[in-house]
Amino acid sequence: MSDRIRQLVVTLAAAFMVVGTLFGVGLIGTRVEESSGGSLSATATLIAPAGPAFSIWSVIYAGLIGYVIWQWLPANGSSSRARRIGLLAAVSMVLNGAWLLVTQAGWLWVSVLVILALVLVLGELMRRLAGDPAASVTERVVVDGIFGLYLGWVAVATAANITATLVASGVNPGGLVAELLGVAVVAVAAGIGVVLAIVYGGRWAVAAAMAWGLSWIAVGRLAVAPESALVGGAALAAALIVLAAAALVRIRASRLAPADVGR
């Protein structure tokens, strides 16, 4: 595929994502929190982040548009990084828009498949970035930073999406059992955050987005119905674990670097 065709594909994918977003925010269709019978609202389950958490999408979308512009710049269009991640970036945007459209239709189980695919695509994209370091600070922000935020947030959103789908399907034991299951879910999220820190070298963007989502789950459960001090406390602990994991990986890498140089 030529560079120009790849650039056009990325741009068209971004346009599709924007259309999906118009549905998601209610300018065309129904807002996400009101779609699917309210199953994806901030008060639908014990794992739903409080409303302000979703403001991170404004940063991610702005960054993705910035990425589209970046890959059109003459100095970047034929770069190895643009070529390695361009199609994956396009697929991620298409999946993003598709998720918003399928939730409009109330297809929750389909939305789970879509968001799982999105996580896998972003994971592979970040793996490719890790093997080809950024050439400038701007590139680290517009490419590595934005896709790191994207992956980190979607990782948490996936847990919330699966939980919402299960509850909507009738899997809702209630009481202490539901709270313990909620704790188990945030524990898994923390474990995923640790794995991502190890695999991607403790990238702050990934850890920050995951900590953001987990912290807002904590706020939701400690301040908004359905309230659960148990789940709220576990989510806050999970956020701290994710940040600590990233910090420890980076500290270890910085200590090993001088030894590696001397070899």
Instruction: Give the overall pLDDT as a whole number.
Output: 94
Q: Give the % helix.
A: over 70%
Order of helices and strands: HHHHHHHHH
Low-pLDDT runs of 5+ residues are: none
Number of strands: 0
User: How many domain units?
Assistant: 1
Q: For the record, give the distance between the C-alpha atoms at the N and C termini, rounded to a whole number.
A: 40 Å
Portion in beta strands: under 5%
Q: What about the largest sheet? A: none
Number of helices: 9
**Content-based structural category:** mainly alpha
Question: How would you portray this structure in words?
Answer:
The chain has helices at 3-24, 56-72, 74-77, 80-104, 108-130, 137-168, 175-199, 204-223, 229-261. The radius of gyration is 19 Å and the shape is globular. The relative contact order is 0.13. The longest helix has 33 residues, at 229-261. With 263 residues, it is mainly α. It has one domain (3-251). The protein contains nine helices and no strands.
List the topology elements.
Layout: H1 3-24, H2 56-72, H3 74-77, H4 80-104, H5 108-130, H6 137-168, H7 175-199, H8 204-223, H9 229-261
Helix pairs in contact: 1-2, 1-4, 2-6, 4-5, 5-6, 6-7, 6-8, 7-8, 7-9, 8-9
Q: Which short descriptors sum up this protein?
A:
263 residues, mainly alpha, 9 helices
